[in-house]
Amino acid sequence: MAILVEQLLNALALAGLLFLVSVGLSLVFGILRVVNFAHGVFYMLGAYLGFTAVAVSGWFWLSLVVVPPLVGVVGALLEASTLRFIYRRPPIYQLLLTFGLALILEESVRVIYGPTAKGIDPPPLLQGAVEIAGTFYPRYRLFLVVLGIVVGLGVWLFLQRTRTGLVIRAVAQNSEMADCLGANVGRVRTLVFGAACALAGLGGVAAGPMTTAYLGMGIGVIVDAFVVVVIGGLGSIGGSMAGSLIVGAAQTWGAFYLPETAMVIMYAVMGVILIFRPWGLFGEEE
Amino acid sequence: MSRTRVLALAALVTLAVLPWALARYQLSILTDLLVFGLFAMSLDLIMGYTGMVSFGHAAYFGLGAYGSALVLIHFGQPVPVALLAGALLAGAVALPVGWFSTRATGIYFAMLTLAFAQLLYTVAYKWRDLTGGSDGIAGVPKTTLFWGGPSLASPRAFYFLVAACVVLSLVACCALVRSPFGRALQAIRENERRFTSLGRDPRPFKLVVFVIAAVFAGLAGALFAPFRGFASPEVMFWLFSGQGLMMVIMGGIGTLVGPVVGAMVFILIQEVLSSYTEHWMIFTGALFVLMVIFLPGGLVGTARRLAGRG
Fold first, then answer.
1. DSSP letter, residue A132
2. Which end of chain B is least crowded, N or C, by CB within 10 Å?
3. Tens of pLDDT, residues B20-69
4. Which of B102, B283, B293, B294 to mutate to test the interface with A (most CBs of A within 10 A)?
5. ipTM above 0.85, yes or no
6. Which residues on adjacent β-strands are paired with residue A136?
C-alpha cells in the first residue's frame, strides 16, 4: 500500500514537470503551427538560469518568479528575429530552423556554464518529507504536483476568460480571418512563443532541485514531451495533461517493475493509443 | 550531351582520379563525405520526394553499422556480405516502424520516427552483450571483396568500394524517382488527399519508400562500420538524424544529388570549424538558421535556379 501511494505520487510529480514543458510545445503548435524543437533547450535554460539566480540571491522563490519571464524574453526575441520570416514555408523549414536554434542555445549554455551538472537546493519550506498514508514522501515532489495543476488551470483560464486569450484562440482557429478582423497576428505569435518558452523555463527552474541542471536535459525532456503531445493530441491543453499523466505513470511504474525496459513501455503505450487514435486522445484530424 | 550529363561525367572522372591526387588523410575524409552523402541521399527519398520528414533516420544508419560490424567480427565474411546484412537489418526494422509511423502524417510522422529512433538508440545502448553498450563495437576489420578475393584494407581499395556503392545507389535512386512508383510518391507529396480521392491508398507507397530509404541508410551505415573500424550508439542518436536533415536542406531538398553535396559541405564546414574552436556547434547552428531563411532551395537548388533551369 505504502509503495503504491509512493509510486502514484512519483508518477504525479513527473507528470507535473512533463505538463509544464509539453503544454507550451502544444500551444505553439496549435497557434503558430510550428513544432518547436528548441523547446527543450528553453527548459534547460530555465534550469541553468535558476541555478544562477539561486546562487546570486540565495532565494529559490525569487528564481521561480524572475527566471521564467527572462527565458520568455529570449524566446520571443528569437521568434521575432528568425521564425517570423518563414511562416509561409512548409512546416519542415520551421522545425529545422528551431533545430538550428537548439544547437546554438545548447552549445552557448555549455560555453557559459561548462560541462558539469549544477545542483540546486530546494527552498527550506520544501525540504524534507511529509507523512502520507503511512509513507514519508519528499515535500518538493508534492510541490511539483501542485505547480502542474496550478499552471494548467491558469493557462486554461487565461485562454478561456480573458480578452487576450480570446484573440489567441481566434488566431489558432483561423489566422487569416483574425488578421482581417484587426488582430495583430504577428504580435500574438511572438507573445505565445515567448509565453510557451517561459512555461518551459518555469519547468526547468522547478526541475532543477530534483534533477540538477545538466547539459542534455533539454533533449531528454523534448523527446518525452513529444510523446506526451502525440498521445494527448497537438494543440490541446487537456491532451497535454492527459498525456503527461499517462507518460508519467508509464515511466514510473516501468522503472519500478521493469527497470531495463522503462522507455519501451512508454513507446508501447504510445503505439497502442495511436493505433486507435492516430491524432492523439484529444487531437483533431488535420 | 546535356549539361547534366557533362557534369555527371566530370564528377565520375573526379571521383576516379582523386585517390591518386590526395594524401592519405584527405582520402579518408573524402570516403567519410561519400558515406554521409549516401545517408543524406537516402533521407531525401522520403523527405524530398514523398514529403515525409523523418526525424529518426539515423537509427537505420546505426542498424546498418551494427549489422555489418557483427557480421565482420563474428563471422569474418567478405565486406559485401556485411553490407547486405546491414542494409537488410535496417530494412527489416524499418518495416514495423514504418507500418506504425505511416499511419500518421506531417509532424506526427516526424515525432513518431523520432520516438522509435530514440527507442532503438536505447536498445543499442542497453543491450551490452550484443552491442557493447556505450563503448560500441571496436576493431571492425576491413575484410575482402569476395571469398578469397583481394583485401580491402588499403584506404584506396576501400574508397573505391564506397564510391562504387554511392554512385550505384545514386543511379538506382534516380531511376526510382523517375519510375511510375516514384511519380506516385511525388503525387503524394504534392497532394495526398487528391491522391486518395483518385482511388489510390497512399500508405503502401509510403511504407515501401520508407523501407527503401532505410535500406540505403543501412548501406551507408554498413560501409561506415568497417571504414571507421567501429559501431557505437552515437550514430543512432537524434542529433545525427537532425544533422541528416540539415545536410538535405543545405544541399537542396528533392534533388538527390543535392543532399550528397550538402553532406560534403556540412562535414567539411564541421571539420574546418572544429579545428578552430571546440564550440563549432554554435556556428553550424547559426549558419544553418541563415540557410533555412535565405536559401530554402539549398546549394544545388539555388545553383539550378541561377543557371535558369527553375
1. E
2. C
3. 888 888 898 899 999 999 999 999 999 989 989 898 999 999 999 999 99
4. B293
5. no
6. A131
